[in-house]
Amino acid sequence: MMLIHCPFCGKRSESEFIYGGPVGADRPNPDAVSDAQWVEYLTVTPNPLGPVQEKWWHARGCGEWLTIWRDTRTHDIVEAPENAQ
Amino acid sequence: MQTYNIFSLARNALTGHQNWQKAWRSPPLKDQYDVVVIGAGGHGLSTAYYLAKEFGITNVAVLDRGWLGGGNIARNTLTIRSNYMRDESIPFYVKSVAMYEGLTKELNFNMMHSKRTMVDVVQTYPKMRELRRRQLTMDIYGSTYEQISTEELRRRIPALTGGGPDARLPVIGGMVHTDAGVNRHDAVAWGYARGADALGVEIHQQTAVKSILRGTDGAIQGVETNRGTVRAKKVVVAVSGHTTTLTETAGLKLPLRTMNLTAFVSEPVKPLVDVIVNCPDSGFYFSQSDKGEMVIGGAPDMGQSFRRDIKQHVFEDTVTAMLSLFPAFKKLKLMRQWGGHLDIAHDASPIMSKTDVGGLFVTAGWWGGYKAIPAGGLTLAHLVAKDQPHPLMASFTLGRFKHLDFVLESGTTTAR
């Protein structure tokens, strides 16, 4: 069971949260990119063997949406990797 | 290849079982092949087998970083069925189920195939409407689905004592899929390996592919392994969860996410349930193995994961759901638990495709890929050999993403 740090409630059990999906690329302007780039934005998400950035919703708590980095190999919540934006 | 039959068994019994040949060779690794298949699992081995058998391409190496059949083919719940939703999917799985039924004879290896029927326990009216809609589509393509009453459902599954009228989700009926069955996963891996080896395919275990090599023209040149460089003009990636890890070494991005799916088995008990029981509204399914163990599967952990173990809250949710319908299972001791990591595409349908990298083929996005091993191998071998998709899999190429022409199958497996 993961303990996720909520900025309002502190460390809370994962069972209070709902997974909100990975953080993808920023939405490009559809008029400014090619079809291939637009399709990539719509369908391709980062799938790293290591830290991934994802959204969680503290639905059974205060209702806050938050973003964490989590290592997909261990499920440990980690600091952002150095090359992250 | 020595044939397995009653006469060879008797002959070897008389000589104390000292003279059985090895089921496959362990040849030295060459530095060049026509086709390199990465991953000696179900899809990798069946692709190699059909490349040799149907298309005469025998200079093939299957590489695996661990041992043969030690990945997801050893980590699934053996369910073979064809109750899918889309026009594109159902014929493919109907073909695969039919091929499985003939596989023991085809490979001269006992698959212990048990065509035992799958019964869906339905607890909500939206799910019942959805399954009846699936029945209409399945009728067109020769798959079987039939609605039964709650009384008939409880007659067929006497252990189903929960879900009464006062339950939060009372059982309202069932659907019966008579084509479904289970078999033995090791036999599938070993049977295809033995069959492919007999046709000249080389299987190299303990050979980890580090990266995929591209030439100056961008086309595939081969792979870099822990045992040196292996050159090939065609490379097939059949590695399940690690697909993107490998294709990114060739600079290729794919619409796949890797997730963890778990299963567990109980202690063996006397025969109690003779069908595969699927409870889509509660989120679990199980069947009883020949040894008497309940083989239980649940819903996935939603986040991305490369772990191969089970998560406590997924396990607890699955057990809670199961006990609500099968309260007698409270006394069962659970013996083993495991997880596998597998990748899922944007639309929950598989990807069998050429890629933007010339000579690089992928078979990925298999969620419940065990049932698809024979047809998946046959159709991918067709694509690799002829460079044209097999009609049964033409809808499952990467081209569908370019045109946003998805084959949405979320909900027909445990994927959500």
Characterise the protein shown here.
- The complex is a heterodimer of chains A (85) and B (416).
- The longest helix of chain A is centred in the middle third of the chain and has 9 residues.
- Chain A has one helix and six strands, in the order βββαβββ.
- The model of chain A has no long low-confidence stretch (mean pLDDT 92).
- In chain A, the strands form two sheets. Chain A has a four-stranded antiparallel β-sheet, with no helix packed on it. A two-stranded antiparallel ribbon of chain A has the order 1-2.
- By secondary structure, chain A is mostly beta strands.
- Chain B is an alpha/beta fold.
- Chain B folds into two domains: 232 residues, 3-Layer(bba) Sandwich (FAD/NAD(P)-binding domain), CATH 3.50.50.60; 148 residues, D-Amino Acid Oxidase, Chain A, domain 2, CATH 3.30.9.10.
- Chain B is 28% helix and 23% strand.
- Chain B contains eleven helices and 18 strands.
- In chain B, strands 3, 4, 5, 11, 12, 13, 14, 15 and 16 form a nine-stranded mixed β-sheet that branches. A six-stranded mixed β-sheet of chain B has the order 6-2-1-10-18-17. Chain B has a three-stranded antiparallel β-sheet with strand order 7-8-9, with no helix packed on it.
- Chain B starts with 5 loop residues before the first helix and ends in a 14-residue tail after the last helix.
- In chain B, 49% of the residues are buried.
- The model of chain B has no long low-confidence stretch (mean pLDDT 94).
